[in-house]
């Protein structure tokens, strides 16, 4: 309680700073230059659309592709025309020379024929890669079809289609379909891998599902100026047997960690904040700071089956009373990415219990606040998946730690049970032990008196109504 007044004072001290930040231009000139250099540009998109890649273009594209690897791997790429790197969660092969890629059929996997004399490492004539960046997760890998790479100097199949841009071959198998994983396992890795190619990329999708690519169409075509996506394999849709030919290719995606673009290992030094800007640009969202309004909008991500708020109505009423306009986002609302992105983009506070819905923070305007309700025993996951990423995206972040009495686990276990008194001892036993208990096995009833403090804190973090400036 003693903290309340102090926070209020701090809020007033910050007020002049906030107003100054609104008035300052969004991007400094130096930063703008860097963005133009490291991202797509409209001019180049036009060049791409003409479909004719001249020699200069091809050389420049090769130069950009080399930036995907560094050190020894880059020397290897220059020397052998191909380099494959193995990161903890992803395997990635980059080749700056021509390839032919045959689509998967019922009897053979998608196959990349290295037709320009690329040298695989000694002892390898071919190898198999699953282009989804969760290689340590056997469940994700079962849902990701293998892609074969073969050194084929002579008997490679003839081209049915010749593309002017390098192939970016990636999978939407694995955990794709869950919004956190869509962003974390596919969209951010795609941005890391192809974001610096200035739209000179032909996306080639493995484990293709039409609804998925339709949902993220605007984002995908912000990375590629090709006329369409190409399909390498699909578990649900028949794929025409075809041989696609490319001047170069990347098989697999770069991956840096949970909702992370690590600028020290990204082409062009892009950061998580740059990813958020990229996404906003792709979806036509506003980038400016959440405007100071009389009743800021709070979007509440509603969960229904696990980690549900049993007193959600009470929480909504409280938020209204504290001064918010409240929008409750049911899970079904989030099937259309564009519409819901617009709703989140117009809000000041995104609030929810730890879970994939919080990934919608990627659509927030600068200066908005993320409020994460942390269920019992999920502190580690809350920090790794949402708290640190929110800060990296330049958002304000606060969390509400539920007390054990606010969790339904409290009624389910004896009061001295390890589940209640020492969650770490359970978490340490692995996800297959902790998941049914903490992730899937609890609902919450928030202590509204205590949660009011958190909501007030969120309100204070927002810009004041403009007339105050
Ligand atoms: C980013 O990469 C650098 C160098 O590889 C590493 O030292 C640093 O810990 C990474 N940052 C994060 C947030 O993982
Ligand atoms: C959980 O997984 C570990 C290894 O991944 C295994 O040793 C253990 O038996 C599993 N426990 C349960 C309850 O399935
Ligand atoms: C949580 O609440 C939902 C909806 O009220 C219910 O379907 C589910 O079984 C509950 N789960 C637990 C672990 O209590």
Automatic annotation (TrEMBL):
Q: One GO MF term, please?
A: pentosyltransferase activity
The alphabetical list of record keywords is: Glycoprotein, Glycosyltransferase, Signal, Transferase
Q: Does the keyword Transferase apply?
A: yes
Where found in the cell?
A: Golgi apparatus membrane
UniProt signal peptide: 1-21
InterPro entries referenced in this protein's UniProt entry, alphabetically: Glyco_transf_61_cat (IPR049625), Glycosyltransferase_61 (IPR007657)
**Domain Glycosyltransferase 61 catalytic: start-end pairs:** 271-371
Residues crossing the lipid bilayer are none
Per the record, the major location class is Golgi
Q: How does it sit in the bilayer?
A: Single-pass type II membrane protein
Provide the Gene Ontology terms for cellular component: Golgi membrane
Q: In which pathway does it act?
A: Glycan metabolism
What is an example of a Pfam family matching this protein?
Answer: Glyco_transf_61
User: What's the protein name?
Assistant: Alpha-1,3-arabinosyltransferase XAT3-like
Q: Which organism is it from?
A: Elaeis guineensis var. tenera (Oil palm)
Give the organism's phylogenetic lineage.
Eukaryota, Viridiplantae, Streptophyta, Embryophyta, Tracheophyta
């Amino acid at each position: 309680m003693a903290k309340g007044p102090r926070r209020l004072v701090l809020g007033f001290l910050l007020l002049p700073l906030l107003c100054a930040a609104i008035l300052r231009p969004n991007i400094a000139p130096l930063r703008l230059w860097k963005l133009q250099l490291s991202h797509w540009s409209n001019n180049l998109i036009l060049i791409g659309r003409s479909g004719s890649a001249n020699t200069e273009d091809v050389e420049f594209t090769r130069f950009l592709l080399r930036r995907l690897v560094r050190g020894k791997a880059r020397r290897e790429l220059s020397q052998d025309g191909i380099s494959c790197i193995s990161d903890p969660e992803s395997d990635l092969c980059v080749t700056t020379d021509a390839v032919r890629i045959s689509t998967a059929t019922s009897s053979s996997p998608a196959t990349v024929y290295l037709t320009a004399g690329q040298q695989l490492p000694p002892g390898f004539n071919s190898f198999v890669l699953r282009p989804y960046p969760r290689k340590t997760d056997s469940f994700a890998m079962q849902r990701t079809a293998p892609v074969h790479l073969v050194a084929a100097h002579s008997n490679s199949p003839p081209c049915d289609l010749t593309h002017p841009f390098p192939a970016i071959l990636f999978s939407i198998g694995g955990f794709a379909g869950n919004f956190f994983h869509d962003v974390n396992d596919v969209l951010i890795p795609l941005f890391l891998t192809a974001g610096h190619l200035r739209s000179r990329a032909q996306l080639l999708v493995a484990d293709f599902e039409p609804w998925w690519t339709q949902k993220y169409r605007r984002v995908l075509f912000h990375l590629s100026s090709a006329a369409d996506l190409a399909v390498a394999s699909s578990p649900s849709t028949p794929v025409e047997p075809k041989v696609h030919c490319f001047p170069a290719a990347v098989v697999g995606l770069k991956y840096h960690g949970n909702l992370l673009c690590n600028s020290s290992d990204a082409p062009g030094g892009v950061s998580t904040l740059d990813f958020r800007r990229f996404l906003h640009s792709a979806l036509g969202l506003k980038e400016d700071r959440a405007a100071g309004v009389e009743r800021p909008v709070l979007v509440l991500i509603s969960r229904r089956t696990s980690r549900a708020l049993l007193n959600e109505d009470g929480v909504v009423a409280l938020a209204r009373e504290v001064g918010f306009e409240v929008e409750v986002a049911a899970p079904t609302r989030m099937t259309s990415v564009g519409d819901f992105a617009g709703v989140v983009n117009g809000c000041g506070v995104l609030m929810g219990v730890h879970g994939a819905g919080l990934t919608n923070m990627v659509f927030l305007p600068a200066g908005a606040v993320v409020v994460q309700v942390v269920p019992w025993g999920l502190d580690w996951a809350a920090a790794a998946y949402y708290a640190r990423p929110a800060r990296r995206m330049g958002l304000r972040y606060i969390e509400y730690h539920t007390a054990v009495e606010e969790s339904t686990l409290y009624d389910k276990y004896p009061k001295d049970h390890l589940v209640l008194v020492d969650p770490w001892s359970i978490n340490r036993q692995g996800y297959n032990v902790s998941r049914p208990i903490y992730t899937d096995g609890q609902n919450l009833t928030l202590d509204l008196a205590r949660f009011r403090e958190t909501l007030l804190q969120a309100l204070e973090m927002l810009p004041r109504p403009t007339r105050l400036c």
